[in-house]
Amino acid sequence: MNYQAPLSDMKFILENVVDYNNLSSTNHFEDTSLEMTSAILNEAAKLAEEILSPLQRVGDLNPAILENGVVRTSPGFSDGYKAVADGGWIGVAANPRYGGMGLPLTIQTCVNEMMNGACLSLSLNPLMSQGQIDALEHHANDHIKSLYLPKLISGEWSGTMNLTEPQAGSDVGALTSKANNNNDGSYSISGQKIYISWGDSDFTDNVCHLVLARLPDSAPGTKGISLFIVPKFIPNHDGTLGQKNNLRVVSLEHKVGLHGSPTAVMEYDKAQGWLIGEESQGMKAMFTMMNNARLGVGGEGLGVAEAALQKAVKFASQRTQGKSPTNQTGSIIDFADVRRMLLTMKSKTYAARAICLATAVAIDMSKAANEKSWVARAALLTPIAKAFGTETGIEVSNLGIQVHGGMGFIEETGAAQFWRDVRVTSIYEGTNGIQAIDLVSRKLIDGGQAAFELINEINYLCENTPNELMKLSSELKTALDTLSEATSWMVMQKNLNERLAGATPYLESFALVLGAFFHLKGAIADNKAQSRVKLASFYMNHILPSVFSLCKSATAGSADIYKLSAKELNVI
Ligand SMILES: Cc1cc2nc3c(=O)[nH]c(=O)nc-3n(C[C@H](O)[C@H](O)[C@H](O)COP(=O)(O)OP(=O)(O)OC[C@H]3O[C@@H](n4cnc5c(N)ncnc54)[C@H](O)[C@@H]3O)c2cc1C
After folding, report:
1. Could you identify the atom of ligand 1 that is nearest to the CA of residue 434?
2. How much is the average pLDDT of 375-394?
3. CA geometry: angle 320, 322, 326, nearest 5 deg
4. Residue partners of 8: CB distance under 8 A and separation at least 6
5. Which of 126, 149, 160, 525 is the most exposed place for a label (fewest CB within 10 A)?
């Protein structure tokens, strides 16, 4: 069985769980009814199931290669990309003035989830372009916008993002790529960038690189970084392609997974580039791109989780091994431990989907309603969506291998590919450790106001849950109180390293409570069919209790973390 788009779950969550209707009540998105959204998602599902899904294994077995300085992509990827571009799926949320559909990012997030679940390595390409489109829309001048955006949105050209250098990974401020003003409106860019996703391909006419570099005498660290657009072919004023720029792919990385996506070492040797935004304000523009991409990468984890879940359920329904005490179907799906794994996979995938979509709605609302509280909500949720979406992808695909037993370790089932492909998502776009640091430092800088507003909203639902579901809400309420105490503890710490020591468990506990909130909302909306009540019940009793141990670790401080010296880590 190939991938099947989870349309009914998406539509259910949009309608009942993340208040998507709020969007259509704004002027900005007034034409975005659920009915219209549903029709768009149905079309995207066809693309994912029929065109992209067959490419998943092809890309794994036939990685992109570098041949005489040119990247040759996996068989079929060119046609797959063309279908994505021709369908307008790259620019779902992009500005209509430049050819985009102008629809909510929430719709793009659903579409991206489907493309990711079908073939992650190919769908990473349009995701990179989407981030670039967003950055240019917000920070580029009108000339650059009108030259680049229509081609990026139509998919004739693709976009990349170039931050990382050998000595500058999480520490972006350590980058040394140089820029010099040519005094003709352009700049000369030199340096080496590593790990550049889709650094080149053979299916777009041009590849446009957003490159971070330093001007002479700029301030050290992130303050002195500027952002440039550096195209592979320099466009003429009418958008036709001019001469080849002084940049090249030096090599492609050999990776654990994601083989269909060429990850390039790029060299810029006095390449011609154009400034985006102000000089030394590059990080501001890059953050626009990274914020968009962080939710996008959370959606990558989610897409793979869904695909891995589907494969595992199918396998478990067919594989027979002895009899279980319940013996309902005769397959391994009857065994309690297999059920536990499948329910963990399903309930966490649902939680991750709801968190990603709630984040997308908050981003859309901050654009449409221009209210500070939505901006703060979007900022709070973004690192959670990135980290929890990707960790869920990794955990679910790992459990998927386990459900398959020995066959999970044999490549032909495809269960292992999900895990290999999704593993990197907790590393790129800011490691999940960096996301957690963002949450406990920048996102609590308001004294926890945005966090407590959300906690209060969850509390309100707990206190207003219908009687028959009170058992679910009381489990949530206890975990919520624990999270609330941990949040107060975080806010009270004067020494930042005390917060940082507990950042990752804090982020995870926040995500698990949010997941429970969305499960409860789902259960309330689906009180008749009851299947979502049963799923929520599993989540509250088997997944949510981790919040207590996570919050204990989150608030334990740094003392134990530093008691054992770095030397002792090596020798005892
Ligand atoms: C397949 C792939 C595709 C990629 N695509 C792109 C791309 O398109 N463009 C691009 O620019 N980059 C890309 N990257 C690079 C990616 O963003 C970096 O790998 C990532 O930012 C981490 O940097 P690093 O590898 O140098 O690890 P490091 O920064 O060295 O981190 C190592 C470990 O230390 C931790 N750490 C580092 N600093 C801190 C800190 N201050 N506090 C706490 N912990 C910390 C990290 O969380 C991590 O666990 C890609 C990487 C891969 C593998």
Report:
1. 47
2. 97
3. 95
4. none
5. 525
Q: Is 306 a catalytic residue?
A: no
Q: pLDDT-based confidence at 290, cuts 50/70/90?
A: confident
Whole-number Å distance between alpha carbons of 146 and 179: 24
CA of 402 to the centre of ligand 1 (A): 28
- In angstroms, the CA 494 to CA 374 distance is 27
- Torsion, Cα 133 136 142 147, to 10 degrees, reads -50
Vertex 233 angle, CA 231 and 234, to 5°: 75
Pick the residue whose CA is nearest to atom 44 on ligand 1: 433
Give me 462's structure tokens. 């707990």
**DSSP H or E segment with residue 70:** strand 70-72
| Residue to mutate, 172, 227, 294, 427, ligand 1, most ligand atoms under 8 Å from C-beta | 427
Supply the residue whose CA is at minimum distance from atom 2 of ligand 1.
195
Residue identified by tokens 């308001």 is 446
Please report the beta strands in 79-129, taking only residues with DSSP state E, as ranges in sequence order: none
Going by pLDDT thresholds of 50, 70 and 90, the confidence category of residue 329 is confident
pLDDT, average across residues 266-280: 97
3 state DSSP class of 111: helix
Measured N-to-C along each axis, helices 503-525 and 531-538 cross at an angle, to the nearest 10 degrees, of 160
Q: Structure pTM?
A: 0.98
Nearest to 517 by CA among 320, 298, 355: 355
Helix (H) or strand (E) holding 234: strand 233-235
Kindly give, in sequence order, each residue whose CB lies less than 8 Å from that of residue 193, ignoring residues fewer than 6 positions away. Answer: 162, 163, 164, 165, 177, 211, 265, 266, 268
CA–centroid distance, residue 172 to ligand 1 (Å): 9
- What's the mean pLDDT when you consider all of the chain? 96
pLDDT at 1: 53
For 169-217, give the secondary structure using H, E and C: CCCHHHCCCEEEECCCCCEEEEEEEEEEECCCCCCCCEEEEEEEEECCC
Buried b (16+ CB within 10 A) or exposed e, 196-229: bbbbbbebbebbbbbbbbbbeebeeebebbbbbb
94, 137 contact by CB (below 8 A): yes
Side chain identity, residue 352: A
Residue 181 has pLDDT above 60, yes or no: yes
Catalytic residue among 113, 165, 395, 429: 429
Helical (H) or strand (E) element with 267? strand 263-276
pLDDT tens digits, 203-245: 999 999 999 999 999 999 999 999 999 999 999 999 999 999 9
Give Cβ neighbours of residue 484 (< 8 Å, ≥ 6 apart).
452, 455
Q: What is the C-alpha separation between 505 and 420, in angstroms, rounded?
A: 24
- Do 280 and 218 touch, CB atoms closer than 8 A? yes
DSSP assignment letter at 159: E
Phi, psi dihedral angles at 120 (to 5 degrees): -65, -40
Ligand 1 centroid from CA 379, angstroms: 21
Q: What is the DSSP letter of 75?
A: T
Single-letter amino acid, residue 563: K
| Burial bucket for residue 26 (CB in 10 Å: 0-12, 13-18, 19+) | middle
